[in-house]
Design a protein that fits this description.
Length: 369
C-alpha cells in the first residue's frame, strides 16, 4: 500500500459558506481574517485506488482555510509556515509524498522552500497538468475537425509555469501561436526561445487577454488570475477552449450564453480502481480529480518519492515521463467536460455546426509525448 497527501484550500469565499453556513452572515473580510488563525485540517481520506499493476493507494486531503487572495497577498514566510504545518500533518499520517493544490503551488518559490522543511518530497502536479491539458485540447480540436496548420492557437498565462510548458508541448503540433501574459518583456523572451527551437512557428504576443482570443480557434487558459478574464463576447464561434486555471479564467456565463463554443474543464482525470473514493466533493463524479492531485498519486504508485515538479520551470522530459507513468497505472482523461458537466458526441456535433463550411482538410495533429 502506497500513501500520499494533498493540500487543498477554498478557491472562493462561497466555499467557506458551503462548509460553515453561518459564515454567510458575516463580511467576507472578517471571515477570511478569522480563518487565517485556523490550523490545517484533515479534509478527506482517499481509499480504493488500485493501479493496473495491482498496487493499491490511500491518501489524505489536508485543508488550508485560506482564500487565493490571502495566500497571494500575505508574506510568504507566513504562508510557508502554514504549508509546513500541513506537511508535518501529512508526515504524521504516514504519507510518502505531498502534493500542492491550487494557489499553494503558486505562492513563493513553488514548493522549493517547503521541500527543504519536510522529510517527504513535494510536487506541484504541474507536469501532469500540462500533459493532460494539451492532450485533451488536441483531441477536442480533432473532433471539431480543425486544421492545426491554419488554426490560431492562444495560450493565456503563457509565461507562468504551466503556460510556458504548454507552449513547448504544443509547438510541434501547431503553426500559429499567440502568447498572452501581463508582462511584455517576459513574453518577448519566451517568443525568442520558441522561435529559435521551432522555426516553423508564426508567433505573436499580447498583454490583453480579451483582445487576444477574439480570433482564436483554440485557447488554453492557465493564468493565475484570481477570477475570470475572458467573457462570453470575446470568443469566436466554434472555438475550443480548455480552462486549466482554478479559479477559472473563462467566465461561467460562457456556459449559458455561448452554446457555439466548446469549453473544456482542463486536467480532470479518472483514477483507476472501481471502488476508488476521493473522500471529498470536488464537484466531479466519483473517481475524478484534478491532474495536479493525480500526479501526486501517480508518483506514489510508481515509488517515485522525489521532488518531481517544483520551482518555476517544468522540465519537458518530466511532462512526457509522468504522462507515460499515468497510462501505466490506468489514469486517463475523464472524457470531455464543460463546467463540471459531461459533453457527449451530439453536443460536439452541434457546436461543430457553428463552424463556417469549408472543404475537408487534414485534421491530424496528435501531440507526441
Amino acid at each position: 500500500m502506497r500513501r500520499f497527501a494533498f493540500i487543498l484550500h477554498p478557491l472562493r469565499f462561497d466555499d467557506f459558506a458551503r462548509k460553515y453556513p453561518v459564515t454567510r452572515y458575516f463580511p467576507s473580510r472578517l471571515v477570511e481574517s478569522f480563518f487565517k488563525h485556523i490550523d490545517p485540517v484533515l479534509a478527506g481520506h482517499v481509499t480504493g485506488v488500485r493501479s493496473l499493476t495491482g498496487e493499491e493507494l490511500e491518501g489524505w486531503l489536508i485543508g488550508l482555510p485560506l482564500t487565493p487572495q490571502i495566500i497571494l497577498h500575505s508574506p510568504y514566510d507566513w504562508v510557508l509556515k502554514k504549508l509546513e504545518k500541513a506537511g508535518k500533518m501529512a508526515e504524521d499520517l504516514g504519507a510518502e509524498i505531498l502534493g500542492l493544490g491550487a494557489f499553494t503551488k503558486i505562492a513563493g518559490d513553488r514548493g522549493i522552500s517547503l521541500s527543504h522543511r519536510l522529510r517527504i518530497p513535494v510536487t506541484t502536479g504541474n507536469s501532469y497538468t500540462t500533459a493532460t491539458a494539451v492532450e485533451g485540447t488536441l483531441a477536442a480540436a480533432q473532433l471539431m475537425q480543425m486544421d492545426l496548420s491554419s488554426a490560431q492557437v492562444v495560450v493565456v498565462g503563457a509565461t507562468g509555469s504551466i503556460g510556458r510548458a504548454t507552449c513547448f508541448v504544443l509547438a510541434p503540433s501547431v503553426h500559429h501561436l499567440r502568447l498572452v501574459a501581463r508582462h511584455g518583456e517576459q513574453l518577448d523572451l519566451l517568443k525568442a526561445l520558441l522561435s529559435h527551437q521551432f522555426p516553423h512557428l508564426d508567433i505573436d504576443v499580447s498583454t490583453d487577454a480579451r483582445q487576444a482570443v477574439l480570433d482564436a480557434d483554440i485557447v488554453i487558459a492557465v493564468s493565475s488570475a484570481p477570477g475570470a478574464i475572458v467573457e462570453p463576447g470575446d470568443l469566436k464561434p466554434g472555438a475550443v477552449i480548455t480552462d486549466v486555471a482554478r479559479p477559472r479564467n473563462i467566465s461561467a456565463q460562457v456556459s449559458q450564453k455561448r452554446p457555439d463554443v466548446l469549453v473544456l474543464d482542463g486536467g480532470v482525470i479518472e483514477v483507476p480502481g472501481v471502488h476508488a473514493d476521493m473522500g471529498f466533493n470536488f464537484g466531479f463524479p466519483p473517481r475524478m480529480v484534478e491532474a495536479c492531485m493525480a500526479e501526486t498519486m501517480i508518483l506514489a504508485l510508481s515509488h517515485r518519492l522525489e521532488n518531481f515538479t517544483i520551482g518555476g520551470e517544468i522540465e519537458m522530459a518530466k511532462v512526457s515521463e509522468i504522462h507515460k507513468l499515468g497510462q501505466h497505472h490506468g489514469f486517463k482523461l475523464a472524457g470531455f467536460r464543460r463546467f463540471e458537466r459531461a459533453i457527449d458526441d451530439a453536443e460536439i456535433e452541434r457546436i461543430r455546426g457553428y463552424l463556417p463550411k469549408k472543404d475537408p482538410r487534414d485534421v491530424s495533429g496528435r501531440v507526441s509525448f
